[in-house]
Design brief:
elongated, disordered N terminus, mainly beta, 1767 residues, 35% strand, 13 helices, eight-stranded antiparallel β-sheet
Length: 1767
């Protein structure tokens, strides 16, 4: 409180001194001025010598001085009392309370209490009654007496004109009149006083004439009277106005001048003298701050906050305002209630501060309003004030143990791309901007931010400069060059043809085809061309094109000679059309033409019937359309209203091409005889015509020629009467054109004055009057204060004067002598003040007050804080200068205080700036910790063979240049940058000087030697040839070729047989013959024989069952008539016949193994008995026409049997070739020897088992079980023989069962079936004999096979209610319970282990306990208002509020998910309201609050409808599982997530996209076209809403709610959504980029607006991002005590978990191991309430496992589909 009071006290004192006014009874004002400070110091010399005292009487003078000192002391005491009174008033103001206002009146610039009287002028007395001032003339005074003349009253001193030639004057009740002389010009009334003059006005103006005596005054002569009127200017409410050249009315001078500075209208600025004042320049014409102008002396006193205590009547300030500062009146009135945007309720220390600030503003300029600056709370413990700033700021910033000064910049640790700066205690960071100088810059160096152009980064890989870059184009050769990639085409060899073609996949043209006139042709292809009207036939032969002329076919088309064209074309009306083209002829919109074989064919266009009643055929179109309406020959636009021209009483409306009309409802008429005109429907009253102007019936208007008459039109006649003048709202209005009601000036004392004019009172020279809005304000003139105790009032004077009795004092240096008691300063010494006391002068040095600043400058006399003296130099206030003592610091002089701080540096515009004297500069470079001059070259610290150059803060590095060498194959030694000739590098091989090595290009024939860095190669010497006719061989050496054997010549390398019977094989090699015995292939058969004339043995056949079967033979197995055996390579293979059907209706006899087809006919061909054929494309299928014992021959078909390849390794298996059925082995098969008899061997085919019997392998095919699943779902695991299925299809029940799952037969509970790899195996349960105790009954429970003994009925307790004995219910899909004799018994199913592949994930089929593997799913989410994240990861914003397809199986139609959006009362944005899931004929609705409907009926959760649907409530999330693997999560408010398995990839459509792995094409509409905007995409998927009352819905538009809500809302949304990028989510940023969700969050908060809805929108956006994080494997802990809190029932033991186990522990599954429970849980984890570790959930409570009720787990039986108890 001390600060504001100390600052305010001097101003209050000054205003108090000026406001000490005492009002005397006579209306005079005496100002009493208290002694100044200097007066008190010189009080000993101020008292003049008494005129009666003799000179030289020191005793008398001392006595007089003592008296004067006593009086001064009394004045000081009085001053202290006044100061105490002022402080008491200030304290009273600060404790101001608001009370209902008491009635007060406003007059003479002050407030008057109820009943008070005052005189605004000498002849007027006013009294305050009930808040209104009532003023009347004062009776009884002669000088106030008025006059009466012809019934009109006139005030004293008023002049009036009773007629045109008479002037009268009222003076103290008497009227004196004088006649005007008759003029020679026209007179007003001829015959009245001047009978001989022409009618008119003085000055020669005739009646009715108008003229301008002055530029802004217009006069009119009316009835002999000259009426002149100045400009009608609106009242200005500004302090300074001016009249522009050529204008009549003044205007406010724009802008403000304050503290010597000019400001524009509306500008906001800080005061230069006090930075704690926020000032604004109001618009020039100030709006009234209080009520509008009111008559003087009747304005209620202004009130602040319901009277706001008693500071209004205080005379310390208020009486002064109209006298000293009349301009403050514009800012004074305060609206009642004291609270408007411009007038906050005053409390505490505000009233005086606010009042004085407005006063200051008014004193300076009158249009400046200043308010105190509110300082925000500081974020640091000890903020310090700064020069030039109002609010204390933080000195520096501290974070993580580091401290930075204000303005200091640094690079964020761990992120060189973030630059942080300390600004007033707050750390602000921004991304460093890097200049992009090349397209593929290399990644930045460690610890730096910006990429370099010294290398390339492309396709995720770094390349050095000059290194080869893979371009993906095999025909180009690319290298990295300074951050860019330069590519050159590969050189191609010349080709020996003129028109080589190009083959796809090859770079160079080849002669295997032709390229001719821009077209590619294959070799031997023939084509036709047309050139110059001739038809040319050409052919391509090995890159050469040969052509010959040919006659063109006759065609009705003219061939243009415009170069090569194809022949068939059409010409119509001189225009040519290509073959097959369709077109519309010009000017014939109803004709369609097409070109067929060169002939144009045209026909009429058939129009489909229009879907409206009044279609329009637009000009230039063929068919009518419904885009407008044609009605009675007129065309109307859709949506247009019109009147039927043929029936004017009908009003019509055109809508989508159909016109609908309705009768007009005529309004009632107000006249007796209304009229109807032709073409009009409704009768109406006749109009009036006056002075050739038409007026509507009932209209009121001014007479066109006489504005003083008011007229009204009634039934065709205009009735006029003189206008009634309202009472004027002011006391002295100017006469108007008709009425005396113009308050823009004053008529007073017989004269007219403009508004705002000041003039002396007509009858009282001591009063000054002012015209204010038509009312007069006359105040007694202010008299200056007098220094003498007894002033006198002279006659004819208004102010008293001091008698001139004292003598003056001569001034030093001459000049006018100083008067008695006058203070003056010496010209040569302004620091002393002198006083003249009756001829004697006393001078004293002016005392200097203490200065409140540290570095004041020396003023003319005293130290002053309007500048600074700092280290011997003077600086102006507000001046900045470099610190004389600290480099890189800038100092600010502010009001005598100096503040120095480090110089703020702008970010450098180069990546490697040098450290300048203070700031980084681009004049040099700092690179890897070293400093270099600009243009300086230096070795690269990272790569010693690179040379870098610094240029203006940029560093470029390149390979160091090397000197040219004189050798051809130099070598670069290790550790060197440049090659030398001390060694050789030749085609990748290094050699020492003088070393000889094989030629890398021809190692067999050449040797190379390294000599002084160059390699020289020579051919190896050839050995001599030992034959007569050598020929060139390897290395071009002569070799011998042919050989002679047995009289025949054989060429070199030729192989031939040896002598007959020798079993040898010979070869000719280099002229010599070498022979070797022919090797025999090993045979796998035990029975071998060598034929005569043969060298090697062969297999004789197979032994099976004691019989020998020849090689390759087949026979029927006697043990199994439908099995066939075959002998191959000594191995017997037996297998059951695999039948094939080749006809539609085969038949099978009793002894037939396969069904037969009657008649040996297949596909129209007859076959003879014994003839076989292949029925299809499978070479393993064979059909045979066989004779039958009875009837005609028939066809029997089966698959060929393949021999078993015993002992053949997998690597040696050869697949069958084309048109072959069986595989072969590349090596001999193993033999069944004596030592292997009885042993078994597994052949490559896992379906066979082989056994060694009778020295022959006997291989038997095993049979496979029948499978229940479709063929498309069967698969054979590697190494298995029989196919399997992942699940079984139970056809009787129409459902699927997972592998390993068991179930009961619904028709017979004694049969239990199990799924084994798609094969269903069923077992029959046998019941033991049952004996029950006395009184017990044998009962058979539903779903059980065997009877049991049941005690007398005893109920069980479940979830707080009684359950009847024998009742069964389902706890979940894995557990069913029943009440047995008062005990709850439960059956829980255990699932077999499940192992899914890398591209699979477990999924749950409705009704199944155990999951199955499906292709890995993808998910789509809608959240917020709303945003859609598609299956492929694209984020969309769409604001439609209708129903839309969210996700749909567009190929198979298995399911569709629709969403219905609502705008929740906010137009332009929307939220998801409900979700509809269609599964075949079943419709599921997910509604607000988690309610669920199935086919329109509400259902309780969990809900199961096998085999299609299972819906459950997990925490607060509804989860829907559907049969095709679909999963939908709904939070019951606005967030929905859809998950589909990967098998639907490429089949989806809707707002969630097409699920093809590419986010770029997600904006596909229903027609398959890419749409340009998200709004168009969203609207294209709109669908009709479901049954029920329709609601208004709006299509989505491209909206930006932040643009509509303004900058403040966007800034607040950015701040609140910043939590997404903060530390709670930091672990998630690496896996899910936060930027799209941050943008969606800001979008939502702008759309939601302020209030609690913004909190819900923020939580929706944060939860959506957290959900994606959880899917990516990161669970952020982001909720806080005040951020999106979720309440859990602590009394039941629950705690909140962001991602607890989705399948929690219960009393029914606590026996299942945790790993198994988690492995089979297919629900996603959702945030919600969980039981703490060690507790299990039971009936919505968390209890210890020991407290679970006695539950008997009676086996792993599957639960039945049973209702929950009570359903």
């Amino acid at each position: 409180m001390a600060g504001p009071r100390a600052a305010l006290l001097p101003l209050v004192l000054q205003l108090t001194i000026l406001a000490q006014v005492s009002v005397t009874g006579g209306g005079g004002v005496i100002l009493r001025e208290p002694p100044q400070l200097a007066d008190i110091h010189d009080s000993g010399q101020q008292e003049p010598a008494h005129p009666l005292a003799p000179a030289g009487a020191p005793q008398e003078q001392g006595r007089l001085l003592e008296e004067r000192l006593g009086r001064l002391e009394a004045q000081m005491i009085a001053l202290r009392e006044q100061n105490k009174e002022l402080e008491a008033r200030v304290r009273q103001l600060e404790s101001c309370e608001c009370r209902p206002p008491s009635a007060q009146c406003w007059g003479l610039g002050r407030a008057w209490p109820e009943g008070a009287r005052w005189e605004p002028e000498p002849c007027t007395a006013c009294v305050c009654r009930e808040g209104a001032a009532l003023c009347e003339p004062k009776p009884g005074l002669p000088r106030c007496r008025g006059c009466s003349h012809n019934g009109q009253a006139y005030r004293n001193g008023e002049t009036f004109f009773p007629d045109a030639c008479t002037t009268c004057h009222c003076l103290e009740g008497a009227i004196t009149c004088t006649q005007k002389p008759c003029p020679r010009e026209p007179c007003p009334e001829p015959g009245a006083c001047c009978p001989d003059c022409e009618p008119g006005c003085p000055g020669g103006h005739r009646a009715g004439e108008t003229w301008h005596p002055e530029p802004c005054v217009i006069c009119t002569c009316q009835a002999g009277t000259m009426r002149c009127q100045g400009p009608s200017c609106s009242e200005l409410n500004c302090l300074e106005s001016y009249t522009p050249p050529g204008e009549c009315c003044p205007v406010c001078r724009p802008g403000c001048e304050y503290e010597g500075h000019s400001y524009e209208d509306g500008a906001s600025f800080l005061s230069n003298s006090n930075p704690c004042l926020q000032c604004s320049c109001l618009v020039s014409a100030l709006p009234p701050l209080g009520p509008g102008p009111a008559p003087p002396y009747s304005t209620p006193a202004p009130t602040l906050g319901h009277t706001c205590c008693s500071f209004i009547p205080s005379r310390t300030f208020q009486d002064l305002l109209p006298v000293r500062f009349p301009s403050i009146l514009a800012l004074w009135p305060v609206p009642q209630g004291c609270q408007t945007p411009a007038h906050p309720v005053l409390s505490g220390s505000q009233p005086r501060a606010w009042l004085l600030l407005i006063a200051l503003g008014a004193l300076q300029s009158g249009l400046v309003r200043c308010m105190p600056v509110r300082c925000p709370p500081s974020s640091c413990p000890e903020p310090v004030p700064r020069p030039g700033h109002c609010c204390p700021t933080c000195q520096g910033c501290t974070e993580g143990g580091s401290h930075w000064e204000h303005g200091q910049e640094w690079t964020a640790p761990g992120d060189p791309c973030r630059i942080c700066q300390c600004l007033e205690g707050h750390i602000q960071c921004r991304q460093r901007e890097c200049a992009s100088l090349c397209p593929y810059p290399a990644r930045p160096l460690p610890g730096t931010c910006c990429p370099l152009c010294d290398g390339c980064f492309l396709n995720g890989r770094e390349y050095r400069r000059g290194e080869l870059v893979g371009s993906g184009d095999p025909c180009s050769h690319c290298r990295c060059a300074n951050g860019s990639v330069q590519c050159e085409p590969l050189p191609c060899p010349p080709v020996p043809c003129r028109h080589p073609g190009r083959i796809p996949g090859q770079c160079c043209p080849v002669c295997d085809g032709c390229e001719y006139q821009g077209h590619q042709y294959q070799s031997e292809e023939t084509f036709r061309l047309q050139e110059s009207g001739r038809c040319i036939r050409c052919s391509c032969q090995a890159g050469e094109v040969s052509c010959e002329e040919q006659e063109c076919p006759v065609a009705p088309c003219a061939m243009p000679a415009s170069g090569p064209q194809l022949c068939p074309a059409c010409v119509l009306d001189g225009e040519e059309f290509a073959e097959g083209v369709q077109w519309e002829p010009d000017g014939q919109p109803c004709t369609a033409c097409s070109c067929h074989d060169g002939v144009p064919m045209c026909g009429a266009v058939l129009c489909s019937p229009a879907l409206c009643q009044h279609p329009t055929q637009p000009p230039g179109s063929c068919c009518p359309s419904c885009e407008s309406c044609t009605y009675h020959g007129q065309v109307y636009a859709n949506g247009q209203n019109f009147t039927d021209a043929d029936s004017p009483c009908h009003t019509c409306h055109c809508e989508e091409g159909t016109v609908r009309c309705s009768l007009v409802d005529c309004p009632p008429t107000t006249c007796a005889r209304p009229q109807s005109r032709p073409g009009q429907c409704c009768p109406r009253c006749p109009d009036c015509i006056l002075e050739e102007q038409v007026f509507v019936d009932g209209e009121s208007f001014s007479h066109p020629r006489d504005p003083c008459q008011e007229c009204q039109c009634r039934e065709g006649h205009a009735r006029c009467q003189p206008r009634v003048c309202p009472p004027a709202p002011c006391a002295h209005p100017l006469p108007g054109s008709c009425c005396q009601s113009n308050c823009n000036g004053c008529a007073f004392g017989g004269k007219e004055y403009p508004n705002g004019a000041d003039f002396p009172h007509p009858s009282d020279p001591c009063r000054q009057c002012r015209c204010l809005g038509g009312s007069m304000q006359c105040l007694t003139r202010r008299c200056p204060p007098l220094p003498c105790p007894e002033p006198v009032l002279l006659p004819e004077e208004c102010c008293p004067q001091c008698p001139a009795i004292s003598s003056g004092c001569p001034r030093p240096g001459g000049g006018v002598p100083a008067r008695h008691l006058e203070h003056f300063s010496l010209p040569e010494d302004p620091c002393h003040r002198c006083l003249c006391l009756d001829g004697s002068v006393s001078c004293q040095r002016l005392p200097c007050p203490p200065v409140p600043c540290a570095h004041p400058r020396q003023g003319p006399c005293c130290p002053s804080c309007d500048g600074c003296l700092y280290q011997g130099k003077e600086f102006a206030s507000g001046e900045r200068f470099p610190s004389p003592s600290a480099s890189c610091h800038v100092c600010l002089c502010w009001e005598g205080s100096v503040r120095c701080e480090p110089r703020a540096c702008a970010p450098a515009q180069c990546p490697f700036p040098d450290r300048g004297d203070c700031c980084p500069v681009c004049e040099g470079c700092e690179y890897l910790g070293e400093t270099y001059l600009s243009s300086q070259e230096f070795p690269d610290p990272r790569e010693p063979c690179n040379l870098c150059t610094c240029l203006g803060g940029f560093v470029t590095c390149g390979r160091q240049p090397c000197e040219p060498l004189g050798c051809s194959h130099p070598l670069t030694p290790a550790g060197h940058c440049c090659p030398t000739c001390q060694g050789c590098l030749y085609h990748g091989v290094t050699a020492a000087p003088g070393e000889t090595l094989p030629d890398p290009l021809d190692p067999g024939c050449s040797l190379c030697t390294c000599q002084e860095g160059s390699v020289q190669c020579q051919k190896k010497p050839c050995p001599p040839a030992l034959c007569p006719h050598p020929s060139p061989g390897p290395c071009f050496c002569p070799v011998c070729h042919s050989c002679f054997s047995q009289g025949q010549e054989h060429q070199d390398g030729e192989e031939f047989g040896g002598p007959p019977g020798s079993c040898e094989w010979c070869r000719c090699q280099a002229g010599r013959v070498s022979c070797a015995r022919l090797p025999c292939p090993p045979l796998s058969c035990p029975l071998q024989v060598t034929e005569p004339g043969s060298c090697c043995p062969r297999c004789r056949g197979c032994l099976a069952g004691g019989e020998e079967h020849p090689e390759g033979s087949s026979w029927v197995d006697p043990q199994s008539p439908c099995s066939s055996c075959m002998c191959h390579d000594g191995v017997v293979t037996c297998a059951r016949l695999q039948c094939v059907s080749s006809c539609a209706r085969p038949h099978q006899g009793l002894n037939d193994c396969c069904p037969r087809c009657s008649d040996c006919e297949h596909e129209g061909r007859k076959y003879e008995p014994g003839e076989s054929f292949q029925p299809g494309t499978d070479p393993c299928e064979v059909c045979i026409c066989e004779l039958q014992p009875e009837g005609p021959p028939s066809i029997q078909c089966h698959r060929r049997q393949c021999p078993s390849l015993v002992g053949c390794p997998t690597s040696q298996l050869l697949p069958p070739g084309p048109q072959h059925c069986c595989p072969t082995c590349a090596q001999a098969l193993s033999n069944c020897t004596e030592g292997l008899l009885g042993s078994e061997l597994a052949p490559p085919d896992p379906c066979y088992t082989c056994q060694c019997q009778d020295l022959t392998w006997l291989c038997v095919h095993r049979a496979c079980p029948e499978l229940s699943c479709p063929l498309s779902e069967r698969h054979t695991p590697p190494g298995s023989c029989c196919p399997m299925c992942r699940e079984c299809v139970v056809e009787a029940e129409g459902r699927r069962v997972a592998d390993g799952e068991s179930w009961q037969d619904p028709s017979n509970p004694c049969i239990t079936c199990t799924c084994h790899g798609g094969h269903v195996e069923c077992d029959l349960e046998e019941c033991p004999a049952l004996s029950c105790p006395q009184g017990w009954a044998k009962v058979t429970e539903a779903g059980r096979c065997c009877e049991r003994c049941q005690a007398p009925a005893q109920s069980c307790a479940h979830q707080g209610r009684a359950v009847a004995s024998g009742e069964r219910w389902a706890v979940d899909v894995c557990t069913t319970c029943s009440c047995v004799a008062g005990t709850v018994r439960c059956q829980s199913q255990r699932c077999p282990p499940l192992s899914c592949g890398p591209d699979e994930a477990p999924a749950l089929s409705p009704g199944s306990c155990c999951p199955r593997c499906l292709p890995r799913p993808a998910s789509c989410m809608a959240f917020g208002d709303p945003h859609y994240r598609t299956f492929d990861g694209r984020l969309l914003h769409f604001q439609g509020s209708c129903s839309y397809v969210l996700a749909k199986d567009c190929r198979g139609g298995d399911f569709s998910v629709h969403v219905t959006n609502t705008n929740r009362g906010r137009r332009g944005v929307a939220w998801t309201q409900e979700v509809a899931v269609q599964l075949g004929d079943v419709a599921v609705g997910l509604l607000q609050g988690g309610a669920v409907t199935v086919d329109g009926r509400p259902v309780a959760l969990p809900f199961l409808q096998e085999p299609l649907l299972y819906v459950e409530l997990q925490r607060r999330t509804v989860i829907l599982h559907a049969q095709p693997g679909l999963q939908v999560l709904w939070d019951g408010q606005s967030q929905v997530e859809v998950s589909v398995p990967g098998s639907y990839r490429g089949q989806m459509c809707g707002l969630c996209g097409n699920f093809n792995g590419f986010a770029q094409d997600d904006l596909q509409g229903p027609e398959g076209l890419l749409l340009p905007t998200e709004a168009a995409f969203g609207n294209s998927w709109q669908v009709p809403e479901g049954p029920g009352p329709s609601r208004p819905c709006f299509k989505g538009r491209e909206v930006d709610p932040c643009k509509a809500s303004g900058y403040r809302a966007r800034r607040e949304a950015n701040a609140r959504c910043g939590v997404l990028k903060s530390s709670p989510f930091s672990r998630c940023h690496a896996v899910v980029p936060p930027e799209p969700f941050f943008a969606a969050c800001v979008y939502d908060l702008c759309a939601c607006g302020p209030g609690s809805s913004a909190d819900a929108c923020l939580c929706d956006a944060l939860e959506a991002y957290a959900s994606h994080c959880r899917q990516a494997g990161v669970t952020p802990a982001w909720r806080g005590p005040t951020l999106c809190v979720v309440g859990c029932p602590l009394d039941r033991g629950f705690v909140f978990d962001e991602c607890g186990p989705p399948c929690p522990r219960t009393c029914f599954n606590q026996h299942v191991p945790l790993g198994e429970l988690a492995a089979h849980c297919v629900r996603p984890c959702v945030p919600g309430c969980q039981c703490p570790a060690g507790l299990v959930e039971h009936e919505a409570h968390c209890i210890s496992p020991e407290a679970c009720p006695p539950v008997q787990l009676t086996g792993d039986q599957p639960p039945r589909s049973l209702p929950s108890p009570g359903q």
